[in-house]
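Table S2 (text version). Query chain:
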Amino acid sequence: MAVITSAQPATKSRPTKEIKRVAVLGSGVMGAAIAAHLANCGIPSLMLDIVPPDLNGNDRENKTKRNAFAQRSKDALLKAKPAPLYHPSYMDMIEVGNFEDDMPRIAECDWICEVVKEDLKVKNAVFEQVAKYRAKGSIVSTNTSGVLLSSMVGTMDDDMRRNFLGTHFFNPPRYMHLLELIAGADTDPDVIRTMAEFGENVLGKGIVYAKDTPNFVANRILTFATQYILKKMIETGLSAEEVDALTGPNVGHAKSATLRTLDLVGLDTYVHVVGNVLTNAPDDERIDLMTPPDFLLKMLEKGYLGTKSGTGFFKRTDQRDEKGKPIIWGIDINTLEYREPVKPRFDCIGAARKASSLEEKVRIMHTGDDPGSKFVWDVFANMAIYAANRIPTVADDIVNIDNAAKWGFGWDIGIFETWDALGVKYVCDRMKADGLELPPIAEALLASGNTSFYKTDEKGQDFYFDLATKQYQPIQHNPNVINLLLRKAGGNIVKQNDGCNLIDIGDGIICAEFRTKMNTIDLDNMTMLNEAVRMLNDGEFDGMVLGNQGEHFSAGANIMMVLGDVLQGAWDKVDAASNLLQQLGMGMRFCKKPVVAAPHHYTLGGGIEMSQHCARVVINGETYGGLVEAGIGEIPAGGGTKEMLRRAQAYVPASVPEGNFFPYIRRAFETIAMAKVSTSGPELIDLGYFTDQDFVVANFHQQIKRAKDVCLGLLKAGYKPPKPATLIATGEPMRATFRSAVYQMVLAGWASEHDALVADQLARVLTGGDRAPGTKMTEQDVLDLEREAWVTLCGTEKTQARMKYMLENGKPLRN
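Corresponding structure-token output:
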């Protein structure tokens, strides 16, 4: 499977125009969410909306009330789920106003983003005002999801036309990677390039270049696919659960699959999207499918709108299964009544579970003889033909189509990548056997004697088959992206074992990439990391990035391995495992060369601890991390408790006596004892896990390169490892204070007796054990206390029960 980024020319290092401030015109759900993500990325905005029409009397002159709509939308950002903001404090970067009073202020903005309702008359009225007040050369865009740009440019002058484009964000903007850019007939190519660079390098988006056609790329193709699935659902009698089981992760698509995705989008919204094609693309060869099925329209009549109404294809009930999960009923599309869940049973799904790779799973799901596999093949064949026939009217190439599907809908594999995985000849032969007409690009590929839509040469350069030239064209990668898969394919693995790869990423820097399930920490990857530290100290490399491009950075220590030793009473092994992780952290902390961590998504327990011992941390904006050991009845014992204490005491002013350390250490105690987990990368800094010397990047694909750049920057600055910290014990008085606070929580029913025991062991470590207040401690002294507490708690029945429960159920046990 090819790794693809863009079929467009490689971006320059600096944009043609610098975007420092943005006007967001429209403060609805989408407008406010765009303003929020701009704030996440450090870009201030001016968000405007209409003046409430029902104002009268003195209220008409009250500026606060005139801004009420925009202010209300801004305030709602703090309550929205999932959270649009990385951190609540970022609200300050959003200024509100109204169209009547503040439209002249758009002249202060480099980009003016229209996000009003999908009504052409309303949009054009807004653009008439924009034309009066915008600064010459400022970029103007519409965030339409389907209205043609050509219908909006009628009253624009030449400068505004040259600077006008479509910027189709997918909802919610913070989390969805895709940003479609749509050029108008007169749009200056430099404007497209500027927005592509800004979108990719600042906002963290994946850019797809779309044509000015109904629903653009992602929604156009996925609308057809969904309509075809609904048609086949009726014909085959498959249940909602069966459809989603066949069109979700088993074929490399999102967990929400098809029907759950419709529920999330909103069935009313979906019908509107289908209507865009029906109304505006009369020449579409599958226009016969662009009418919502009758059962879907009847669902809307009954108010079944999806997640927002609580009823759609699925309905959450108050019932719970044996594991405590809510029981979700599915709808019977014949009766429109909800019924108990249906368990999908298909031979292809059972076989796919045993697959060792995504490509193998895809082949199993599409090539079997059971009804499920036949359904999957039929859907894919028709979707692939439809997608291929959209070249070049909707998109210029297969790269943009595959990226649209992956980035817009959370797929792991694109349509043409799937075609390659199945084998182009196999797919084409089977299509023809089914009476389907091959699309021109498939005919051209076969005629050229080639066997795949994508290929990679011996130097690691990726190519895609281009319909216009009927030849392979190079895929240009953003210079800010290092793709570890390509590096490995290019033979750049220096050393490896079952748990970790050491990859040469150039300029004397290696990357330590975990390769365990959920990137958990085990003996293999700790051994390889120790070897990497040795290589750095011996001068074989100049620095290291601790990072990967898996689904998660690290889910922490391998609990099963720990529990196995505990149940056997192998206390020496329990102690040794903790010590190994501690000394690995210390080895990275005091390494002669810089080690930079690049945590992302789940970064739990040991994942945090390892990162804390690195010289710097480059955090992805979507990092959900914390020291969560309290959930298994433990404290962090891989150096995390020591690091939280060291960081807490580092904040204490030199003039503060030891007895007044409590406010500083309390945050560390509460964060660990309550197993606080961040909801974003910046919140990891706010919780004290990382520091304001660390960095946050929005684009996950650029994280490894940014971490490498930080590593090189430290080297150029003359990097030297830090001096060992001297810590101060605060002793029994502070421990008693912590103990008293926890006791009150037990009395109130907020904590169990075992929670109190774990908290007491944590307090003992943070206050220096049995040392007298004011006693100096080394970092190793605190590590020894960590391990002692770790082994002690492992010996308790309730901690062992928590470990077992976590392994069996994936969530903490309160006992």
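Notes on Table S2: The longest strand covers residues 314-320. Residues 143 and 168 are 5 Å apart (CA to CA).
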